[in-house]
Amino acid sequence: MAAPEWLAIVEEEIIVRLNPKVLAQIEEDTSGFSDRHNRHGDIIYKFNSQELLQVLASSVGITPSSQGAITIWTYYNDLADKPRNLAKTQLSETKQSPILRTLMNVDGDLSQKICQDILQHPLGDRILKAHSFIVGQISRQLITAIEDYVEAKLRPFAIATISMVTVLTWCEPLRQHFQLSNTFIGNCWGIIIAAPMIMLIIWWLISKLPFQLPDLPKSLSDIGKWLVSILESRFLQIVAVVIISILISSWLAVNFALPAKSPLKYSIDSIQNFAEPYLPIAIISLRKLIVSVLGKVFFRYSFFVKLIFGRFIK
């Protein structure tokens, strides 16, 4: 769900406004949360990714405010507030002292200051538990926001790479199997070079359209999501790694290790010919994993955040 009104970003700082009603809501929303099986982690309260990237930019000194860290202020009121506009909320916070301040750095360091009075509060344990949960949610979504940005930027190149690899691995086998002439299919290498260029041009033209293309029918969209979830399953990712490892080791062995007329070379060629058609599927299967790893690397080192995201989130 979207971030509720008690969780907001104000001037590149994250503000959490708690009260008994909000505590009850958080406890209800998170009931059974630890039992859920999701290796990427569930994110219940989602910020706008653009706003969250602004907070990240501030933490590494890219924006004018330059907070130097991801700052999370938590306020608590024993009375359940009625919905208020942002101006009134900010005015009330100037009169109210925060009970918790959390500073989170890109390299993973975390420091907290806790108001002494809250430790004596009857709901102190629940308040601290809710605050810790929100900090964990924000930490997860920072990584997710980076991953979404990396995926969006790499998507056209991923499509071009997959199209090139598909032509590379399927052109010659199809040509031999159906005994197609040169006039019908032409030079495979020409098609291999042209395929990614065509895909990038199509992607660029679609991105420049003055209107948004209609969504696919829900049934087709659901089938697509189902197929992607199967391809990105842990088992098929392991299979994809095995296929790519076999192809790389086979290529190295054939070209650098084995003599030209070695009997083992023919066996390796057979294995390579068997595995090659599955290479595009293997790349699709590993796409999300690659993006996830890149997202974690960028989040871990502020240098990459400045280098890759600087122009985007200034």
Question: What is this entry, summarized?
Answer:
The protein has helices at 20-29, 49-59, 86-95, 116-119, 124-177, 182-185, 188-207, 218-231, 234-257, 263-275, 279-300, 302-313; strands at 7-10, 13-18, 70-76, 100-104, 110-114.
Description of the structure:
The chain has 314 residues and is an alpha+beta fold. It has a domain at 7-145. It is built from 12 helices and 5 strands. The chain has helices at 20-29, 49-59, 86-95, 116-119, 124-177, 182-185, 188-207, 218-231, 234-257, 263-275, 279-300, 302-313; strands at 7-10, 13-18, 70-76, 100-104, 110-114. A 5-stranded mixed β-sheet has the order 1-2-3-4-5. A hairpin with a 5-residue loop joins strand 4 and strand 5 (110-114). Helix 5 (124-177) runs antiparallel to helix 7, helix 5 runs antiparallel to helix 11 and helix 11 (279-300) packs across helix 12. The radius of gyration is 26 Å and the shape is elongated. It starts with 6 loop residues before the first strand and ends with a helix. 19% of the residues are buried. The model is unreliable at 35-40 and 83-94 (pLDDT under 50).
Write the layout of secondary structure elements.
Layout: E1 7-10, E2 13-18, H1 20-29, H2 49-59, E3 70-76, H3 86-95, E4 100-104, E5 110-114, H4 116-119, H5 124-177, H6 182-185, H7 188-207, H8 218-231, H9 234-257, H10 263-275, H11 279-300, H12 302-313
